[in-house]
Amino acid sequence: MIHEGVKMGKNVVVEENVSIGPNTIIGHNVVIKEGTRIGANCVIADNTVLGKSPMKARRSAVTEIGDLPPLEIEDNVMIGAGCVIYRGARLEEGVFVGDLATIRENVIIGEGTIIGRGVAVENKTKIGKWCKIETNAYITAMSVIEDHCFVAPMVTFTNDNYLGRTKERFKYFGGPVLKKGARVGANAILLPRVVVGEDALIGAGAVVTKDVPPRKVVIGIPAKVLKDVPPEQLLENQE
């Protein structure tokens, strides 16, 4: 169902059982796959694909092919040009997705979160509300980012300590966990399954090999505690 006030550009492909809410704007050459649900007052820019089904490589470790629910895009979401957002994802109200971003299946992105230009969010990941994931960050499969987190440009999450070798690795796959208010500086690397505590701060270029205590600043390779996060920077002290 296409509601009143929807505007579409040229060469838009809309498959069966798609719902588009009132006053949504669809750019040129957009492809909207079967069953996709788009809320009201959304903006979808040119050359974006919505509701794509995953393709499983022969040696993929975490991609699963099966029945996925339709892509759900809630009200007031803005999606940039050249994005690919998969079936089975859900974008909550007010999410912003920059140009050329990719969001895989079984991903939830919470209200008001910003996904920057060129960001890749892999499958089975949950991102909370009011987060900011900046340009070209890589969020690996099976990661968790809680509310009010900040991830700077070029940050890399990882989920496989065995680097694709041995069957043993299948027991231990898991991405990093950022607790509420955690912040990660540019070009930092987080190893699989590390937990970054609430309001912790990871310095630029750090390699995080162990859990990070709450409200601590860590820097270096490997990352070590430097000091406490200054009180004025704590989430509870923000206006």
Describe the structure.
With 239 residues, the protein is mostly beta strands. The protein has one domain: UDP N-Acetylglucosamine Acyltransferase, domain 1. It is 0% helix and 30% strand. It is built from no helices and 31 strands. The strands form 4 sheets. A 12-stranded mixed beta sheet has the order 1-4-7-10-13-16-19-22-25-28-30-31, with no helix packed on it. β30 and β31 form a beta hairpin. The chain is globular.
Helices and strands in order, then pairings?
Layout: E1 7-8, E2 13-14, E3 19-20, E4 25-26, E5 31-32, E6 37-38, E7 43-44, E8 49-52, E9 72-73, E10 78-79, E11 84-86, E12 90-91, E13 96-97, E14 102-103, E15 107-109, E16 114-115, E17 120-121, E18 125-127, E19 132-133, E20 138-139, E21 144-145, E22 150-151, E23 156-157, E24 177-178, E25 183-184, E26 189-190, E27 195-196, E28 201-202, E29 207-208, E30 216-219, E31 224-228
Parallel strand pairs: 1-4, 2-5, 3-6, 4-7, 5-8, 6-9, 7-10, 8-11, 9-12, 10-13, 11-14, 12-15, 13-16, 14-17, 15-18, 16-19, 17-20, 18-21, 19-22, 21-24, 22-25, 23-26, 24-27, 25-28, 26-29, 28-30
Antiparallel strand pairs: 30-31
Concise description?
It is built from no helices and 31 strands. It is mainly β. The strands form four sheets. A twelve-stranded mixed β-sheet has the order 1-4-7-10-13-16-19-22-25-28-30-31, with no helix packed on it.
Largest sheet: 12 strands, mixed
Q: How do the strands line up in the largest sheet?
A: 1-4-7-10-13-16-19-22-25-28-30-31
Tally of helical runs: 0
Question: What number of structural domains do the residues give?
Answer: 1
Low-confidence blocks of residues: none
**How many strands in all?**
31
CATH topology type: UDP N-Acetylglucosamine Acyltransferase, domain 1
End-to-end separation in angstroms reads: 41 Å
Strand fraction: 25-35%
Classify the helix fraction into a percent range: under 10%
CATH superfamily: Hexapeptide repeat proteins
Quickly name the level 1 CATH class. Answer: Mainly Beta
Radius of gyration: 19 Å
